[in-house]
Design goal:
Layout: E1 2-4, H1 14-36, H2 44-64, H3 72-97, H4 109-131, E2 139-141, H5 142-145, H6 148-153, H7 155-170, H8 174-191, H9 201-217, H10 228-241, H11 256-268, H12 273-286, H13 288-297, H14 302-314, H15 316-319, H16 326-343, H17 349-364, H18 368-389, H19 396-401, H20 427-443, H21 448-462, H22 475-481, H23 487-512, H24 528-546, H25 556-585, H26 595-613, H27 616-620, H28 641-653, E3 658-660, H29 662-672, E4 677-678, E5 691-694, H30 696-701, E6 703-710, E7 713-720, H31 722-725, E8 730-733, E9 738-740
Parallel strand pairs: 3-4, 3-5
Antiparallel strand pairs: 1-2, 5-9, 6-7, 8-9
Length: 741
Amino acid sequence: MKFRDPFRLNDWGIVSFLGVVLGVQLLLWGTLVLEENGAGVPLLRQLVGFFYLAWVPGIILLRILRVHAIGAIETTLFAVGLSLASTMFLGFVMNTVYPVLDILRPISEGPLMITLTVFVFLGAVIAYIVDRDYNQPEYISTEESLGWPVFLFALLPILSLFGVWLVNNYRINTLLMILLAAIAIVPVLVAFRQAIPERYFPFIIWAIALALLFHTALISNHIWGWDINQEFYISNLVVTNAAWDFSIYSNVNAMLSIVMLAPIFSIICNLDIVWVFKIVYPLIFSLAAPAMYMVARRQSYDRVAFFGTFFFISFFVYFTEMLQVARQEIAEVFLVLIALLIINKDLNKIKKYILLIVFSFSLAVSHYGLSYLFMVTLALALVILVVSEVGTVNRLKDRVSVFFDWEKRGYGPNFRPRHAGERAITLDYVLLFFIFAIGWYMFISSSSALNSITGLAVQFSNNMVSGFLDPETTQGLSIIVTEATTPLHQIGKYIHLVTQFFIFFGILSLLLKPQKMDFGGEYFSIDREYFGVSLVNFALAAAGVILPFFSSALNTTRLYQITLIFLAPFFVIGVFEAFRFLRRFLQRTNLDLSSETAVRATSAFLCVFVLFNTGFIYSALGDEPTSIALDDRIDFPRFDSQEIAGAQWLHAVGNRTIYCDTPRAVMLEGFVGTTARKIPADPTQLRRNTYVFLGTFNVLTEKLSLTRVNAVLKVKVYNDIGPYTVKRDVIYDNGGTRVYE
């Protein structure tokens, strides 16, 4: 049976298109009316609200721009990106303009619903006027689209949900262990051409990404992690006040991804901010995976794209640290969409630049750290591209341009690379992004984000020479040279170093010689702009290892994860090129070094890689655990209901300084806006007439988790609680939380 493809709704006839869009709008109003009359259907408003905010504004804007025939995946991705951008900037306009009109609570249900409805209806009218004649829907068949892989891999996120439920309620991790083992097998299945049809690869990648994100995001009924507690406080402040105070001095307060996107999703979906961060943001972030697949697939083969994307999402930062920085989740989605636009040479130039500017501006207001890195990337990539094209110093042009000129690198006249077309990275675009981003950081949140980068630059310049290649000041180098805690963890570190070697080998192979893979005689062509950006990201990753205080500004692992957005495919290229290199020099041996062997070796390596990164190996073999999803004994800022109750009680009745150990201190930040004072190593320095807050870990172990900081390095130290509480009285105790006065 065939039916019109709903993922390419913008290609439908205008009447059908408006019928679906306005139908969703009316359905959202219907859920509100039902709830107001006490007849609400459980989860209906949440589902409709999410679908509405994440898709409807964007699909209308695509129709207004007359963007058609770009495929189901890219249509969906661009629609989501435009919807998120629309929600953030529309909220900003409301917060700025409505108080002038005496609407003092602009970010509340009434003004939001009316404004969004007007926006959608006006968009529908404009879409009808400018694009009413287009009617070329694509049809899909149930046999092709709903095959066994869809039903099988759709079980992975479901298995993740049930596995987390067992961990949260019964402390049983068996189902999650089965899930992780099943995910590890997937690359092996992909290695065999006939096992899984290639048309299902984007869906499989998305399902795996979502399962990995949910298996950690949903641990505990409260947010967990470090930065996210400040994001939680700032977002809740907007919801409580129904307005955003942009003068509050805080880097987080300058990010629309936190002060607008999260509160609007919370209000429209009638969902607590906790669950916005634990469900909505991971759902959005999971779309970065199929977007990355499409970026790689446009330049290579299905299995190369699959392995590269699988490598990216199975790196532990993707489903652990990223969930602690909600603003970066949104920013990375925009970054991948920008990459997708850079390599897209089919879109009309004007339409492409409109999308590029919207997504770039959205990146700037989503995460300041990633924006600064993107500024550096654009500036250096532009220099590389201009030199490769123009070159003004002696023979520099001839030496550099060969790396980007496929004809000079040995290809025949019939070969036309996929990167033919005008550059997206132009001086105008780079300057526009610089001006907008710096202007935003200068005037919003009392220049907090701009002051942060200025202070970092001063620290970096002052220590450039003295701290060069010094593990004490270079966090990335320290991680490499520091011995792991156990032999098994040392093996895990070596596995990461192997991937970095192959990334380097892949980059180097593309620089030094032409690429022609023997998969059906096709050519392997990396887009010249993408390659330029990748070179800069490789340099940034290297800078995190050799330059003082550079990687510690973001955290080394997060910096590396950002660069992997562009570098992940080069890991696969590096493996394939290594096999080709060995095949050339070991011709007389009986070793099978064919391309298919390279594919199978890559799949086997990724199988082991994901088992180490998810902590499966450590938990299964009884080694020191790393996953909070598989082991709840890890000392980490993850909080149970008793700790939350204690923090809420103390926030309600406390009026003194609060002392707390390091992991528990950040939880209090989510309620009061500032972290509690860290308990000093010397008990005699603890001031009188203060509170000492102990969480579940402290009560059960009788230990305090303290952090000793030395330059960029942080070391955990555990002290007995006795000397800190011996002369104090217990004023609150619920079994899991204890407060001393």
